[in-house]
Amino acid sequence: MSIEIKGVNKRFGDFVALEDIDVSLPTGQLTALLGPSGGGKSTLLRIIAGLERADTGTVNIEGVDATRMSPRKRNVGFVFQHYAVFKHMTVAKNVAFGLEIRRRSKAEVNARVDELLELVHLSQFADRLPSQLSGGQRQRMALARALAVQPKVLLLDEPFGALDAKVRKELREWLRRLHDEVPVTTVFVTHDQEEAMEVADEIVVINDGRIEQVGTPDTLYDEPANDFVMGFLGEVTRLGDVRLRPHDVEIGLSPDLAGSTSADVLRLIRIGFEVRVVAGTEAGQEVSVVTTRAHARALDLAEGQRVWLTPSVDAATAPAAKSLLAG
Amino acid sequence: MVELGAPAKWAARLLALAYVFLLVGWPVITLAQHTFADGWSSFAETFSDPDVTHALAVTVEISIYAVLINTVFGIGMGVLLVRYEFPGKRLLSALIDLPMSVSPVVIGLALMLVYSGRYGWFGPTLEANGLVVIFNSPGMVMATCFVALPLVVREVVPVLEEVGDDQEQAARSLGANAVQVLRRITLPAIKWAVVYGVVLTLARSLGEFGALKIVSGNLTGQTQTAPLVVEQKYTNFAQNDAYAVSFVLVLISVLCILVVSLLRPKESHS
Question: What is the pTM (predicted TM-score) of this model?
Answer without folding.
Answer: 0.79
